[in-house]
Design brief:
alpha+beta; D-amino Acid Aminotransferase, Chain A, domain 1; Dna Ligase, domain 1; 3 domains; 5-stranded mixed beta sheet; 35% helix
Length: 341
């Protein structure tokens, strides 16, 4: 019997457009012979619509103007429990942070991916790092600053940063994605500007040691018995930060696989990825991102992303493809995990 699957996309976060691209790609690959699919789009203003028009219009954002195929009050599909499972592709706030997961929990609807607590912890990088540290997993040295603290005691905080950390530093929002609001600071004179930029995206930020790095990504699929895809490396193409433009706007393949790394380091990265997935209580899917310090050869966990991108350029499906798992297989497994959990 065919299952009814709600695919939720868009949302109110700054990663709205990324979500549209992920949803369009997933809708292209989902097996319509197995599932009745209910695409539900959320506008940047928070309005919900069921949308049954062209997938290409979802990717371009034109779906919102396609009145013929757009049905208002799309949330009723969830509240009426008209589906068997919810597949969220809401990147960032109000989707990846435990909110949609909490809604589905209240409605007793199975949802693909991690649940409320895990989603919240992984979305908030400060708390995620704190948990990883407690389980002896390596993270880069960091400092957490709230917007109120900075306003109340700016001079002391700036002095603390300069005295306790060596430059360059990375400044970024604690709860954010797609590298928005992230700056690399080489001299102390630029630290305040970078802090203010990060606060435009969140009221809590991280100051981190900037390592002379290589960046690796590992896709994880499963719950108890985990399947890990190939390790991929990000080619920055000469840029200091793998930013939003490099990730989504340029028609350039930034993913390198196979990676030039010894088996010993590969094994350590895989072991760290599995442990991070488990200690953060992740479920279904996640992408674990790593930094490798080229000078010290130390490995650090950068973050765990519980709703990784599913776009044409996204590393999550690509690196699972390298291990022989197709997009259709990924989707089937994730839905199966959610329904049977």
């Amino acid at each position: 019997m065919k299952k009814k699957i709600a695919i939720i996309f868009g949302g109110e976060s700054i990663e709205h457009e990324v979500s549209l691209a992920s949803a369009a790609e997933l809708l292209t690959h989902i097996d319509k012979s197995k599932y009745y699919v209910y695409p539900i789009g959320i506008t940047k203003d928070g309005e919900w619509f069921e949308y049954n028009g062209d997938v290409e219009k979802i990717a371009s954002g034109q779906w919102e103007k396609d009145e013929f195929y757009k049905v208002p009050n799309g949330e009723k599909i969830l509240f009426n429990r008209d589906v068997d499972c919810v597949f969220p592709l809401l990147h960032g706030r109000n989707g990846e942070d435990g909110t949609i997961q909490g809604l589905c929990k209240l409605l007793k609807l199975p949802i693909v991916g991690s649940k409320v607590l895990s989603s919240s912890l992984c979305m908030d990088k400060a708390y995620g790092k704190f948990i990883l540290e407690k389980f002896d997993l390596p993270v880069t040295p960091y400092m957490v600053i709230t917007e109120k603290e900075f306003k109340d005691d700016k001079d002391r905080i700036l002095s603390q940063i300069v005295n306790n950390y060596s430059f360059p530093l990375i400044v970024k929002p604690s709860s954010g994605g797609s590298s928005m609001g992230v700056s690399k600071v080489r001299i102390k004179e630029n630290i305040e500007k970078a802090i203010k930029t990060a606060f435009e995206f969140d009221n809590k930020i991280l100051i981190e040691k900037a390592v002379n790095l290589r960046e690796f990504k590992v896709p994880v699929l499963g719950k108890d018995n985990l399947f890990l895809g190939e390790i991929g490396e990000i080619d920055y193409h000469g840029k200091e930060i793998f930013d939003y433009e490099e990730k989504y706007l340029k028609e350039v393949d930034n993913l390198v696989c196979p990676v030039d790394l010894s088996e010993e380091y590969k094994d350590r990265i895989y072991e760290y990825a599995k442990k991070a997935f488990k200690v953060l209580d992740c479920s279904g899917m996640a992408r674990v991102d790593f930094f490798f310090d080229k000078e010290t050869e130390e490995i650090y966990i950068n973050e765990v992303n519980t709703i990784p991108g599913f776009t044409k350029n996204s590393s999550y499906p690509k690196l699972l493809n390298k291990k022989g798992i197709s997009e259709k297989d990924i989707i089937d497994k994730l839905i199966e995990y959610a329904i049977n959990e």
